[in-house]
Amino acid sequence: MDSKPTRPPRRPPPLPSKTSGMWPVALLVLLCFASLPLFLALSRARPSLSDVSQMGVTVIVRDGFFVNAEDPAATPPESSPASRDRLLGGLLSPDIGESACLSRFQSSLHHKPSPHSPSPYLVSQLRKYEALHRKCGPGTLFYKKSLMQLTSAYSMGLVECTYLVWTPCGGSHLGDRMLSMASAFLYALLTHRVFVVHFTDDMAGLFCEPFPAASWELPAGFHVHNLTQLGRGSEHSYANLLGAKKIKTDDPAGVRSESLPSYAYVHLEHDYQQPDHLFFCDDDQTVLAKVNWLILRSNLYFTPGLFLVPQFEDELRWMFPARDTVFHHIGRYLFHPSNKVWELIARYHTSYMAKFEEKIGIQIKTFAGSKVSSEEYFKQTVACTSQEKILPEIDPNATSSANEAALATTASKAVLVSSVQSSEYAEKLKAMYYEHTTVTGDSVSVLQPAGAGKQAPNQKALVEMFLQSYCDVSVVSGRSTVGYVGHGLAGVKPWLLLTPTNQTAAANPPCIQATSMEPCFHAPPSYDCRAKKAGDLGAVLPHVRHCEDVADGLKLYD
């Protein structure tokens, strides 16, 4: 008879530890410290760094965030902005390490999440482009083979890699260059070309590499010399090649690559003329696609012109269902400040901007030849912010000391002022709100990025553009490319300070809100390729119309 299995003896419960009664107290203390950051984040009047210090908690700044100094390994809690999608809805590839480019992963954490998501098709095309750049970019075997082809007089058919080299215009502002680079990259994306950038000394060290495992920088020793000296009259300019019959567009489909020059220079500066305008024609694009190397020089945001090319229409429609988001997506994909520049941006934002509930960016540019005094332009700016309820009006009968108690309990606003004359405008605005209370009781703090004397001009401009992109509301001078970049990266529709029609008086009305956040193409072509004659290109397509701030310019609208 089988015996039943015996059950192991039951162990007695462990005796209570002498310290077990302390665990509820320890847990309560731990929860108090853990909930402190959440309490600070949800508090209506968020404390400043000095306020936190007075609470007995020492904090330091790490990667643009306040963290507890007692725990050097601490990271921002999951409920903080750090839990947001740092790859921007798939716009950015995860294949670049964070330490190589801190801004790539941290910049989006300094402002509210964008309501504009990239289309799945744009994301897929960017991943395909990155694979192409890894295969054909500078330093690869295919790149070296393609360089050898440049020494030939003609292009070659059936090549695996074709290239677009962007080179800056001498004397152009960094804002102009960034807008031009974004347009050039989009053109490379549309035409399956490898995008290579000629960085001049004044642009060195500004940006991270945007593409994983490959460089976008044109190496030294390029076979075409003096790139910055290329111009409208250059022998290899597309207009001159057409005039000399070295490129013919009578039968675009029948043109063979072997009959075309090894490279062509595309001149899209503000002074380009009618033959250069043919770049935006369908037949000309069919022929240019067979030239192995294109060198492009521009100081314009020529993206709206690409939407006028019929063969690009479907691709652009799939990439950008919302047509007024082109620069918002391409700019955030392409431009990431280097770690050196990012340190300046993150430090300023954390120290001065992060504590405010609402941030208003004002970017003022005065143009050469304007006879409107700075005082008149300041009045126009104040009139805009007051009439449109962007900033509260002041109470001329009440000094700032009369309502200090009320100010301490109201929502705070920060105004970031950027301009070549920013010191003058910022000081006037600061004095106005310092000497008088506001009719709403809101407190207004005026901020001005410092360091003009310590930073190179382009570095200072890049810092200011990114700080402007962290603002919730944007007020910018019409025609300002610096303003275009700032509000374009932010994804907001700006208030445009209109250019005075009277040479000595400020504009009235002082400003209008743009109906599109896209930059303006200041000098579009005047030749209508479809009609084969001069025409108004602002009337060809419903989503390509004239700009609010430049009557002859073109802009994308959704």
Explain this structure to me?
- The chain is α/β, with parallel strands linked by helices.
- The protein has 2 domains: 117-321, no CATH class; 339-402 and 409-556, Rossmann fold (3-Layer(aba) Sandwich).
- The protein has 18 helices and 18 strands.
- Strands 11-9-7-12-13-14 form a 6-stranded mixed sheet, sandwiched between helices. Strands 4-3-6-5 form a 4-stranded parallel sheet.
- A hairpin with a 4-residue loop joins strand 15 and strand 16 (533-534).
- Helix 12 packs across helix 18 (481-490).
Q: What is the number of E strands? A: 18
Q: Which stretches of 5+ consecutive residues score pLDDT under 50?
A: 1-22, 36-83, 405-409
Helix tally equals 18
Distance between the termini: 88 Å
**What is the CATH C-level name of the largest domain?**
Alpha Beta
Determine the CATH topology of the largest domain.
Rossmann fold
- Mean pLDDT, all residues: 85
Which SSEs are present, and which pair or pack?
Elements: H1 23-42, H2 49-54, E1 59-62, E2 65-68, H3 102-106, H4 120-136, H5 141-150, E3 163-167, H6 174-191, E4 194-197, H7 238-243, E5 263-268, H8 274-277, H9 282-288, E6 293-298, H10 303-306, H11 313-319, H12 326-334, H13 339-353, E7 358-364, H14 374-387, E8 394-399, H15 404-409, E9 412-419, H16 422-435, E10 436-438, E11 443-447, H17 457-469, E12 473-477, H18 481-490, E13 495-497, E14 511-513, E15 527-528, E16 533-534, E17 544-546, E18 554-556
Parallel strand pairs: 3-4, 3-6, 5-6, 7-9, 7-12, 9-11, 12-13
Antiparallel strand pairs: 1-2, 8-10, 13-14, 15-16, 17-18
Helix pairs in contact: 6-12, 6-18, 12-18, 13-17, 17-18
Function: May be involved in cell wall biosynthesis.
GO molecular function: galactoside 2-alpha-L-fucosyltransferase activity
Pfam families: XG_FTase
